[in-house]
Write a structure and sequence with these properties.
Length: 355
């Protein structure tokens, strides 16, 4: 896991993206950010501004994987490691909660336990389901990218964006084919974009500040556009759906903002020592943060454990959020390090038996 050289800038971005994911779950599931169509108080607007800044997280996480696709080698071992990692959390966390009488696990029905046993088919973790399918077809994507000319690849990406992103961004009603970016189809689109950025780049994005500027402007546009739609919704216009869709992963503003943040970090350079080295060692365990706090046994419990309801209506939520997110992140990193250590011990014993 630590044998290959990692680029600290992308590892730091990976960590930042996961911190953003936890932040979004704090704001939405902790009910700090409520619909702007019913509340446009200062506290709620601040919560939605933070949501606007963090909504890029999932796209960025996938862009990082896709960026290294041209140099990657598909591996059945890696696939099995990913499957076992997801299964570990899917099974162990509910069983622990059952034994310790945490939450309502003992009241689960047959369907709930099916989601535990078959986490991919039952979408226990929607991201893991989409990502595992993406990884399965990644060799096909890689082969296609290698044989397509730049103009052809660019044209395909634009057409996919018309279907997955641009259309839904301008049509103010629900589109039956729109999955809000919660599917492997959107991940394929992000993968192709990342491959294009790796192979051909965007000449204008040749400075760190340009990428971060686009990210900053994108964040402001997402926030201002949603606030405007929220204000108009409060006046009686039927725009609440369009307001919500502004915060879907495949919205064009979210995509632009995601690419801006990704490109900003692309040109950053951190030495492989000190902070850069620490982040490179931590980053491989970030997926465990997601698998821990989004497990169906605890995904709606940890907000009450940290007492979010006591601060959600005041500006005190901000320092409380920072502390909570850091604690959840740290717990996730520690849990996945333990999981990795267990797997490594099992692997070593299995290897000795086969010798």
């Amino acid at each position: 896991m630590g044998k290959k050289t990692r680029q600290a800038n992308f590892e730091i971005l990976r960590i930042l993206a996961m911190l953003m994911v936890v932040t979004m779950h704090y704001l939405i599931k902790g009910q700090v950010a409520v619909s702007q169509s019913v509340d446009q108080s200062g506290v709620n607007l601040l919560a939605w501004f933070l949501q606007s800044a963090c909504i890029v997280a999932v796209n960025v996480y996938v862009l990082i994987s896709g960026y290294f696709l041209p140099d990657s080698v598909w591996s059945m071992k890696k696939l099995l490691q990913l499957v076992c990692q997801v299964w570990f959390y899917s099974l162990v966390i509910p069983l622990l909660c059952y034994c310790l009488s945490v939450g309502d696990v003992k009241a689960w029905d047959f369907y709930d336990w099916l989601a535990v046993i078959f986490p991919f088919q039952m979408e226990h973790y929607w991201f893991a389901t989409a990502y595992i399918i993406l990884y399965l077809i990644s060799p096909i994507i890689k082969m296609a990218v290698e044989h397509l000319k730049e103009q052809e690849l660019r044209r395909i990406i634009l057409l996919l964006l018309l279907f997955f992103s641009i259309g839904k961004s301008v049509i103010p009603v629900k589109i039956p084919t729109d999955k809000y970016g919660y599917d492997f189809g959107w991940f394929v689109c992000l993968y192709l974009i990342a491959c294009y950025l790796r192979l051909y780049g965007i000449p204008w994005f040749n400075r760190i500040r340009k990428g971060l500027l686009v990210y900053g402007i994108g964040t402001l546009l997402i926030f201002c556009y949603s606030a405007l739609l929220g204000f108009l919704s409060r006046k009686g216009l039927p725009l609440s759906y369009a307001m919500d869709m502004t915060f879907s992963y495949n919205h064009i503003l979210v995509l632009i903002s995601s690419i801006g943040l990704f490109y900003g970090f692309r040109y950053m350079r951190f030495p492989q020592r000190g902070f850069g080295l620490l982040c490179s060692k931590i980053a491989p365990y970030t997926f465990g943060v997601y698998l821990l706090h989004e497990n169906m046994a605890v995904r709606n419990l940890w907000q009450s454990w940290f007492g979010i309801e006591k601060v959600k209506d005041s500006y005190l939520f901000l320092p409380h959020m920072i502390l909570t997110v850091l604690l959840v992140f740290t717990a996730g990193i520690a849990a996945d390090y333990i999981r990795y250590s267990i797997f490594r011990i099992i692997g070593r014993k299995k290897g000795k038996k086969q010798q």
